[in-house]
């Protein structure tokens, strides 16, 4: 098992990419602290893990990644429960503010950056403190997005936030390299999760729609990102540091145009705007 005797913290572990990664890491021998804002989905993943026989290897902590005491508590949970920390996956995310730039609310912009950027910063900050004190290195992985590497791949505020995550990853990798702490990002393309699936149609239809969005004939799954996270968390990637690895079925190679491919209005053509709170359990807002 590639993560035997390793301890991992995974944020946003209650659904989508996080859920798939929690289960994959457990099956690879890791002990996992699952952190999520949504207690219901977080506990459901824990229940599945217990059914699979991993009851001694998993802990759940309700966490708002934008709230520093919560981030401290989730890191402390790993050390207190399992004795150490080896891997931190800053994965929690939301869709955030969506709409024309001149219509966006500053509070919605702040919410987007609080979850997507501040949450990653706080994870790196407190994860690095423990990893440095242990003196044996470690792996920090951040979920970015193809939206962070070019225009037209996602909503404006989301794209700006994910670009920040990529640069934060690279800058932190330089600072932490002397401690043998590797910091890398994953840039998913269209992955079928609760964040990308349409709430107005069956999951099968959402999957079929995603199948047509990139050159590869099948849509991405949470397990595809979990496999990449496993590589970055394991010793196989010992010399991989400061990278933003694209996992998108050749979508960016083709040249994505999110709005045209989805046959929806560009943000500049929308009337009003939306605050997407993802799978937090909080209600989305349409203004």
Q: Can you tag this structure with a few keywords?
A:
287 residues; alpha/beta; Rossmann fold; 7-stranded parallel beta sheet; 12 strands
What's the short story on this structure?
The protein is α/β, with parallel strands linked by helices. The chain has one domain: NAD(P)-binding Rossmann-like Domain (Rossmann fold).
Summed up, the domain count is 1
Number of strands: 12
CATH domain class:
Alpha Beta
CATH topology: Rossmann fold
Tertiary shape: globular
CATH superfamily: NAD(P)-binding Rossmann-like Domain
Helices and strands, in N-to-C order? EHEHEHEEHEHEEHEHEHHEE
How many angstroms does the end-to-end distance come to?
49 Å
State the share of residues found in helices, binned by percent: 40-55%
CATH architecture: 3-Layer(aba) Sandwich
Low-confidence segments, given as residue ranges, are none
**Strand line-up across the major sheet:** 3-2-1-4-6-7-10
Q: Any idea what the radius of gyration is?
A: 18 Å
Structural class: alpha/beta
| Percent strand | 15-25%
The helix tally amounts to 9
Major β-sheet profile: 7 strands, parallel
What is the mean predicted local confidence, pLDDT? 92
Describe this structure in words.
There is one protein chain. By secondary structure, the chain is of the alpha/beta class. It has one domain (7-274): NAD(P)-binding Rossmann-like Domain (Rossmann fold), CATH 3.40.50. The protein has helices spanning 16-27, 39-51, 68-82, 106-134, 156-176, 203-210, 222-233, 251-254, 258-262; strands spanning 7-11, 31-36, 58-62, 87-90, 96-98, 138-143, 181-188, 191-192, 220-221, 244-247, 274-276, 285-286. It has a 7-stranded parallel sheet with strand order 3-2-1-4-6-7-10, with helices on both faces. A 3-stranded antiparallel sheet has the order 5-11-12. The chain has a two-stranded parallel sheet with strand order 8-9. Helix 5 (156-176) links the parallel strand 6 and strand 7. Helix 1 crosses helix 7 (222-233) and helix 3 (68-82) packs parallel to helix 4 (106-134). The longest helix has 29 residues, at 106-134. The chain is globular. The chain starts with 6 loop residues before the first strand and ends with a strand. The model has no long low-confidence stretch (mean pLDDT 92).
């Amino acid at each position: 098992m590639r993560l035997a005797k390793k301890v991992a913290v995974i944020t946003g572990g209650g659904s989508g990419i996080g859920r798939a990664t929690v289960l994959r890491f457990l099956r690879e021998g890791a002990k996992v602290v699952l952190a999520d804002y949504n207690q219901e989905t977080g506990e459901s993943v824990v229940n599945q893990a217990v059914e699979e026989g991993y009851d001694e290897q998993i802990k759940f902590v309700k966490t708002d990644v934008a709230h520093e005491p919560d981030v401290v508590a989730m890191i402390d949970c790993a050390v207190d429960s399992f004795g150490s920390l080896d891997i931190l996956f800053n994965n929690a995310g939301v869709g955030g503010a969506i709409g024309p730039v001149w219509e966006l609310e500053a509070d919605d912009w702040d919410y987007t950056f609080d979850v997507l950027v501040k949450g990653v910063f706080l994870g790196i900050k407190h994860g690095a403190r423990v990893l440095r004190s242990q003196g044996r290195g470690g792996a920090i992985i951040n979920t970015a997005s193809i939206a962070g590497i070019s225009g037209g791949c996602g909503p404006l505020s989301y794209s700006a936030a994910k670009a920040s995550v990529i640069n934060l990853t690279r800058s932190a990798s330089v600072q932490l390299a002397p401690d043998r702490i590797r910091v890398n990002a994953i840039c998913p393309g269209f992955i079928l999760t609760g964040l990308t699936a349409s709430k107005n149609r069956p999951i099968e239809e959402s999957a079929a729609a995603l199948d047509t969005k990139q050159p590869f004939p099948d849509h991405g799954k949470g397990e595809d990102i979990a496999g990449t996270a496993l590589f970055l968390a394991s010793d196989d990637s010992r010399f991989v540091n400061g990278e933003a690895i694209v996992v998108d079925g050749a979508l960016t190679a083709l040249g994505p145009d999110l709005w045209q491919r989805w046959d929806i209005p560009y943000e500049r053509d929308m009337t009003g705007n939306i605050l997407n709170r993802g799978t937090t359990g909080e209600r989305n807002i349409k203004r």
